[in-house]
Automatic annotation (TrEMBL):
Histidine kinase domain: residues covered: 561-778
Name this polypeptide is given: histidine kinase
PROSITE patterns in alphabetical order: HIS_KIN
Alphabetical list of SUPFAM superfamilies matching this protein: ATPase domain of HSP90 chaperone/DNA topoisomerase II/histidine kinase, Homodimeric domain of signal transducing histidine kinase, PYP-like sensor domain (PAS domain)
InterPro entries: HATPase_C_sf (IPR036890), HATPase_dom (IPR003594), His_kinase_dom (IPR005467), HisK_dim/P_dom (IPR003661), HisK_dim/P_sf (IPR036097), PAS-like_dom_sf (IPR035965), Sensor_HK_Regulatory (IPR050736), Sig_transdc_His_kin-like_C (IPR004358)
Catalytic activity: ATP + protein L-histidine = ADP + protein N-phospho-L-histidine
Keyword Magnesium: no
């Protein structure tokens, strides 16, 4: 047994311990290195797997021409083996189209020389694969990353097609906006004008779109909250379209525009304006028409009620309210159709029916009636008859018209009675009557008509034409050819609507008066009246009148002859009396002179009466016509006053003459007008009291001359005034003791009327008389 020294043992233990520690350290280091190596291998494998699965695969081209290519790239390019040198790739043409290969080689060379990267799309020759090559230089090597963009290219082609389509649509939309006839614009997110179309430029009278956008010319007026951008701000804030009506001046005219602002997803706001001026005017006209229509309906006698689509009462006129006893306050709540019908039933203004709800439901169906108007007749309690018309309105509403036909029904009943009475009267008239229609056919006739022409009832019942009737009755006429006159009169009455009459004689000696009268309904009434007896009486009266006219002519001639015969001794009496009054037979006593004055007055009055009688007889027979000429009215009146001045002086009557310059001149017979004035003055002198006053006043105007003669005598009674101008009813004045009127006033009236003038007498008892004559200038 070996015994070690303690020191040696310690050293050996220390060495062994160091060896153990060293071994353990080596084991730990080895384990750590192994772990790190495994992690590195795993990381490399993960990187290789990630690289192999990456969509982009590298090809490294080194300066010496060595090539490192990922297997997937070789597969994409359709290469049979993975090349290791650039010459092999060039020889294989890179597996792509030749033109694309040349371009890729050119890009690779440029990248090697100038480190300029490149991107190129190439197509593999074999499988039709599309690859995107992106090259860059890293250090001395060039890395070309290949990416299989076959699917992406298809998507890009699709997107490119969509882009082209959208571009075309955008261009079309832009052209449409530009060509739109209404102003359109676009505001950016700050609500400033960014784009406008040509219609906008034209509306604001701008130069072009750029000028309008640059100056920010707004289409509509206003500022602040009601400004042109207020609607755009509201649309942008609410996120939905806004519309409003604003005024604008376009082309110098005031217009109303409907402005629409539409928010866009990009933050801006598009807008367009529609000119609604004509629409507004149309709405105004429609409102005015509706108001006028309702005002007109209020004036109708028929009741009218209009219901809306929801069956509420929207309008009723005054006759409707009166007819159904409805208060305006109740109607103001727009009651529903059923409530209106119930209120009508309460007023006892609907027909009495057993099932009122069912009856009401049937009337409610009028709202959905297919087409056309519905008409009913309602017989109400109390004998009232209503005609009801229901007309569906275009807007789904309903209009009801209630016409009170009670009076018409009563009138129809009365008409039937009158027709029966007329028929009975028609058949029993003495006249022969026939009614012909517009085509000349006989429609009605009475028994007298048939008996007069002695025709068969069967012939008349066939309603023959008037030509056939005229031909049948021609042999019964005294002159058969006059039968055509009957047909002509009926034609004139029916076609020309003119009345004609005539006489006709029958062969048996009877005479008839016939007439054709147009009737309101287009027919004509033909009447024949037997005037045989009246014809005989007329002939007898004509013969008697001829005898009376002959006797009157003899009387007139006798009066004229006697008047001339009486004038001869009257002239001698007047002459001798004037000689005695002048003192040719010696000095006369006062009493004798008074007697001579009386003789002269009587002679003068008798001469005047003879002249009046001659005037009446000669003027009435036309023996002395008017001799018209231009005369001075004032001069003629003054001459007449001078002629009677002596008589006025003898009777102690004041004669006042007032002749105005307006009397003027006129066309007439100067002698007759003078006689008119003399007759009026002599009448006034004869009616005046002693110391009385007679006034002659003459004036005129542009159309006529006026002569006024007045006196302050006893006046005349109304009966005397009524007979004053009647030459055959001269019974004197009303006051006792006055002189007779004589023929002066009738002669004056006769001469005045011969000149186309008028004469008027006004008188009252105790107030005198006033005679006014007006003579036209022409």
């Amino acid at each position: 047994m070996i015994v070690l020294h303690p020191t040696v043992a310690v050293l050996a233990g220390a060495v062994i311990l160091a060896l153990i520690v060293g071994g353990v350290a080596l084991l730990v280091a080895g384990w750590r290195a192994r772990t790190e190596a495994g992690a590195a291998v795993a990381g490399r494998d993960a990187l290789e797997g990630l690289l192999s699965a990456a969509p982009m695969q590298p090809v490294v081209v080194r300066p010496d021409g060595a090539v490192e290519m990922a297997p997937r790239v070789a597969d994409w390019l359709g290469l049979s083996a993975t090349p290791t040198y650039l010459q092999e790739l060039d020889a294989a043409g890179w597996g792509i189209e030749s033109a694309e290969a040349q371009g890729l080689v050119h890009d690779l060379t440029a990248c090697q020389r100038s480190a300029r990267g490149f991107v190129r799309t190439v197509h593999a020759r074999g499988g039709g694969r599309t690859l995107t090559a992106q090259g860059e230089r890293r250090g001395d090597a060039v890395i070309i990353w290949f990416y299989d963009s076959t699917a992406t290219e298809g998507e890009m082609r699709r997107l490119r097609g969509e882009f082209n389509g959208l571009s075309d649509a955008f261009e079309a939309l832009t052209g449409l906006v530009e060509a739109a006839p209404l102003p359109m614009w676009y505001r950016d997110p700050d609500l400033r004008l960014a784009m406008v179309n040509s219609a906008y430029v034209t509306a604001v009278e701008g130069g072009d779109a750029a000028d309008v956008v640059g100056r920010g010319v707004e289409l509509v007026e206003g500022s602040g909250q009601g400004g042109p951008a207020a609607g755009a701000a509201a649309a942008q804030g609410a996120g939905r379209p806004q519309s409003r009506v604003l005024p604008a001046t376009i082309g110098g005219a005031r217009r109303s525009l409907m402005i629409h602002d539409v928010p866009l997803p990009i933050g801006g706001v598009a807008g367009y304006a529609i000119d609604i001026e004509e629409l507004e005017q149309s709405h105004a006209r429609e409102r005015r028409f509706a108001d006028a229509q309702r005002a007109m309906l209020d004036r109708l006698s028929a009741g009218v009620a209009q219901f809306a689509r929801d069956r509420s009462l929207v309008f009723c006129n005054q006759p409707f309210r009166r007819m159904f006893a409805m208060r305006r306050e109740w109607l103001a709540d727009r009651p529903e159709f059923d409530r209106v019908m119930e209120r009508m039933r309460e007023a006892n203004r609907v027909p009495e029916v057993r099932d009122f709800p069912g009856w009401k439901a049937e009337r409610r169906g009028w709202f959905v009636q297919a087409e056309g108007a519905i008409e009913e007749n309602w017989h109400l309690p109390g004998g009232t008859h209503l005609r009801v018309v229901a007309q569906q309105l275009p807007d789904g509403g309903l209009m009801l018209i209630f016409e009170d036909r009670t009076e018409q029904v009563q009138l129809a009943s009365a008409r039937d009675t009158l027709l029966r009475v007329r028929t009975a009267t028609f058949d029993n008239l003495f006249e022969a009557l026939g009614v012909f229609s517009a085509d000349g056919r006989l429609q009605l006739w009475n028994n007298r008509f048939r008996a007069l022409w002695d025709v068969e009832e069967e012939f008349l019942s066939a309603h023959p034409r008037v030509d056939a009737i005229a031909e049948k009755v021609a042999p019964k006429l005294a002159n058969p050819r006059r039968a055509r006159q009957i047909a002509e009169l009926v034609r004139v009455a029916t076609a020309e609507r003119q009345q004609r009459a005539g006489h006709i004689s029958l062969s048996d000696g009877r005479h008839f008066e016939f007439a054709a009268v147009p009737l309101p309904d287009g027919n004509a009434l033909f009447t024949m009246l037997d005037i045989t007896d009246s014809r005989a009486m007329e002939q007898a009266l004509r013969d008697r009148n001829d005898a009376l006219e002959a006797a009157d002519r003899v009387k007139t001639q006798f009066v004229a002859n006697m008047s001339y015969e009486l004038r001869t001794p009257l002239t001698s009496i007047s002459g001798f009396a004037e000689m005695l009054h002048g003192g040719y037979a010696g000095e006369m006593s006062t009493d004798a002179i008074g007697y001579l004055d009386a003789i002269l007055d009587s002679v003068e009055r008798l001469g005047l009466l003879i002249d009046d009688v001659l005037d009446l007889t000669s003027t009435g027979t036309g023996a002395r016509p008017l001799e018209k000429g231009d005369i001075d009215v004032g001069a003629v009146a003054r001459a007449a006053a001078d002629a009677v001045r002596g008589s006025a002086k003898r009777h102690h009557v004041e004669l006042a003459v007032e002749i105005q310059r307006s009397a003027g001149r006129l066309t007439g017979d100067a002698r007759r007008i003078r006689e008119v004035v003399e007759h009026l003055l002599r009448h006034a002198l004869s009616a005046s009291r002693a110391r009385g006053r007679v006034l002659l006043h003459v004036d005129g105007n542009a159309k006529a001359a006026r002569i006024v003669v007045s006196d302050d005598g006893a006046g005349m009674s109304p009966e005397a005034v009524a007979r004053a101008f009647d030459r055959f009813a001269q019974e004197g004045v009303a006051a006792a003791g006055e002189r007779a009127l004589g023929l002066g006033l009738p002669l004056a009236k006769q001469f005045v009327e011969a000149h186309g003038g008028t004469i008027q007498l006004v008188s009252e008892p105790g107030q005198g008389s006033l005679v006014t004559v007006e003579l036209p200038r022409r």
